[in-house]
Amino acid sequence: MDCRERVPGEPTDSAGAAAPTLRDLVAVSKRVHAAYRKRPKLPAAVRRAQFENLQRIERTLHGLCANTAPEPDCVRRARQYIAAHLIEQFTAEKVAEHVSLCPQQFRKRFKCATGKTFGQYLTMCRVEHAKELLRDPGRKVLKVCFDSGFLSLSPFYRAFRKHAGQSATEYRRKIK
Hints:
Elements: H1 22-37, H2 44-66, H3 73-84, H4 92-98, H5 103-114, H6 118-133, H7 141-147, H8 153-164, H9 168-175
Helix pairs in contact: 1-2, 4-5, 6-8
């Protein structure tokens, strides 16, 4: 992922120095991350929690970094297609055809613009949709799984835990 470099005329901080770029922030995050991994005196649970927080910060910074350039029209149309057909089964090839690109070029542009592969982005969208569906206490988790576009429970549980940091049942309990 290329972050934009400082250019003449960019904003500066109050001391007149150039404001840090996203690349600078990512580099700082990585240095802090490395320092925490080396601190043996902290309890393992504390180190693990700090490590997870730093990973979240890095993912956020990488996402911001990926989104500094304007989004290409083909990616915007692809995201609209994904949102409109979220619960259907489709492939990157189908979306590439929809936006009039070859699959390889589509994947490359999509990853460059979003910072995620097509599959990662689709799974993230489906998990976010599942979170909305879980707000209805009368809806069973199995129904939420299928209504979110997942084909079976195992990938749903795995994806939900990865993206939400907890199981679907735990998530539902916490939002009540």
